[in-house]
Amino acid sequence: MKKLLISIVVCFLSVYNLFAQDQTGLISVAGNLSYGTKIESLGVGLRGQYGFTDNIRGSIEYKYYIDRRNWSAWMINTDLHYVFSASDVVSLYPIAGVSISRWTWDPERVKIDGLEKFLAKTSESRFGVNLGFGSQIAIGHKSFLQIEAKEDLIKNYSQFVISVGFMYQF
Questions:
Q1: What's residue 19's pLDDT?
Q2: In sequence order, what are the residues at sequence separation of 6 or more whose Cβ sits closer than 8 angstroms to the Cβ of residue 156?
Q3: φ and ψ at residue 111, rounded to 5 degrees
Q4: What contacts 170, CB < 8 A, 6 or more positions away?
Q5: How far apart are CA 164 and CA 45, in angstroms?
Q6: How remote is the C-alpha of 46 from its chain's centroid?
Q7: What share of the chain is helix, strand, coil (3-state, %, to 5)?
Q8: What is the mean pLDDT of residues 36-55?
Q9: DSSP 94
Q10: What confidence tens digit (pLDDT) does each residue in 58-91 have?
Q11: Hey, which residues does 127 pair with through a beta bridge?
């Protein structure tokens, strides 16, 4: 999967005859729903984006993965997008960035030979790298549907994440 994502990012970067989408100075906010393959849970996120140039946009996102099977996690991602238009309605972008995450296991109670024992809640913080691709589809003058697929490369917690969200541009 990692080789496929890297190949797709390289293909996106090598395309140079497509129309640019002017991002300069534009601010946008987005809310999204995600699914992570490691945590196997639904994630809820909020993102802010800023256009640095015609094609380059930065984003910062907070995402919380809902507790499932005693596991929960939160992440803060900072990514760069190289946005280019595939048509008047659809834009595509490769994603590269870094993240910090906190993974928590809260076992509550575990039965051992009929006895209930309480285990301690444990948490780990990790830094990671994000690689992937995304698209945005115009659904109004300043509103877009965003679809992203990326690999979060995190020691012991790497996962493939698919996100769908709504973005509004100011």
A1: 41
A2: 124, 126
A3: -90, 125
A4: 26, 27, 28, 29, 142
A5: 10
A6: 10
A7: 10, 65, 25
A8: 94
A9: E
A10: 999 999 999 887 889 999 999 999 999 888 899 9
A11: 100
Q: What's the chain's length in residues?
A: 170
Could you tell me the end-to-end alpha-carbon distance of the chain, in angstroms, rounded to an integer? 35
The conformation of residue 154, written as its DSSP 8-state character, comes to E
The single residue listed with the structure tokens 């090598």 is: 14
Residues 165, 146 contacting (CB under 8 angstroms): yes
Q: Can you spell out the DSSP letters for 64-91?
A: EEEEETTEEEEEEEEEEEE-EESSSSEE
- Rounded Cα gap, residues 126 and 128, in angstroms: 6
- 128-164: buried (b, 16+ CB within 10 Å) or exposed (e) per residue? bebbbbbbbebeeeeebbbebbbbbbbeebbbbbebe
Q: How far apart are CA 105 and CA 124, in angstroms?
A: 9
Could you give the angle at the alpha carbon of 138 between the alpha carbons of 87 and 35, nearest 5°? 110
Please report, rounded to a whole number, the percentage of residues in the chain having pLDDT higher than 90. 61
